[in-house]
Amino acid sequence: MDYIWAFIIGGIICVIGQILMDKTSFTPAKILVSFVTVGVILGALNIYDVLVDIGGEGARVPLPGFGYVLAKATMKEVDSQGLIGAFIGGIRGSAGGVAASIVFGYIMALIFNPKTKK
Questions:
Q1: Out of 64, 96, 98, 105, which could bridge 39 as a Cys pair, Cβ 3.0 to 4.6 Å?
Q2: Does residue 117 belong to any structural domain of this protein?
């Protein structure tokens, strides 16, 4: 049942993104920034925790999940380090995911022949 809920929650987030792309004049960059910002705000208010409890990785993997991770890591570091935690929390919380993205992106670029769009 966990897989089904992850699929449903992740799918709803993706549907919202697709609707924004189809029905508004937002650029993909604006949607990306909006999703991360919404994730930070909902994570800071502990509202996104409900989605994570229900959807698990289906809520953590999309862009709002990245914002959620930033908010939670920053709040944890502020509690333990004080004001300096506001500056280092997001970096510590997201470092593993960002590093993995870079490494796997590089590996895929080596395996496949990337081309620029024309």
A1: 64
A2: no
Determine the number of helices (DSSP H) and then strands (DSSP E) in the chain: 6, 0
Range of the domain at 8: 2-111
The verdict on residue 107 lying in a domain is: yes
Structure tokens at 75: 């709040």
Question: 113: number of CA atoms within 13 Å, CB side?
Answer: 0
Distance, first Cα to last Cα, the chain? 44
pLDDT, position 35:
92
Give the separation between CA 61 and CA 100, rounded to whole angstroms.
13
Q: Is residue 116 part of a domain?
A: no
- Mean confidence (pLDDT) of the chain: 89
Domain count, the chain: 1
Write the CB contacts of 36 (distance below 8 Å, at least 6 apart in sequence). Answer: 63, 64, 66, 67, 70
**Residue 62 covered by a domain:** yes
100: pLDDT strictly greater than 80:
yes
Structure tokens at 82: 């004080």
